[in-house]
Amino acid sequence: MDAGGDRALHSTNIALIREVYDSEYSPHCFSMELEKALDSHCSYIVIEPTQLGDETARWISFGNYLHKTAVISGLTSIISGLAWPDNFAPQAPLSILSTLCTGLYTASWQFDHCVKYQVERDPRKLARLPILGALTAASPVVLVRKDDTKRKILHCTVSLAAAGLCIYRLYWTIK
C-alpha cells in the first residue's frame, strides 16, 4: 500500500481498491490488494476494478446460495418428515441436499475471508459511506463485514437435525 493514501486503508476502516494502471501497479495487484483488505478485517471494502468486483460478488453470492439451499432444504426435510411420518421419500433427498450444501459451504468457505463479507446494494446505506465521493468507478462493488457465526450455526444445526431425523427414521424403518 502506498504512502499517498489512494490505496491505503483509511482511518474510517474502509479499504479502497482503486482501478489505477501505472508502471508500478499492474492489474494482478488488485487481487493482492483485496486479500490485504480482507486480512485486515476492514468494515468496508470498496472495489473499483470491474472484473475483480464482479468475481468477488459472484463468489459471495454463490456462498449465500449454498447457505440458503442448505437451510431451506433442511427445514423442508424436517417438516416433511414430521408431516408424513409414513412416507420417507420426500425427506431423504432433501436431507441429503441440505447436508451436501452444508458440507460444500464448510469446505469451501471455512477458511476464506470473503465469508465474513456481504455485497451491499442498498443505495441509502451506500450513500452514508464517506469515501464514495472520491470514487472514480461508476459502479464499484462495496463489501460490508458481517458476523457470520449465527449463519453458520443455523445451517449446521438445520442440516444436522434433518440428517439426524432422516437417519432415525431410516433406522426404525429397517428395524
UniProtKB/TrEMBL annotation:
Pfam families: Mito_morph_reg (PF14972). The keyword Membrane applies. It is found in: Mitochondrion inner membrane. Its main location: mitochondrion. It comes from Phaedon cochleariae. GO terms for cellular component: mitochondrial inner membrane. InterPro entries: TMEM11 (IPR026120). It is a multi-pass membrane protein. The chain crosses the membrane at residues 153-172. GO terms for biological process: inner mitochondrial membrane organization. It comes from the Eukaryota. This is Uncharacterized protein. Belongs to the TMEM11 family.
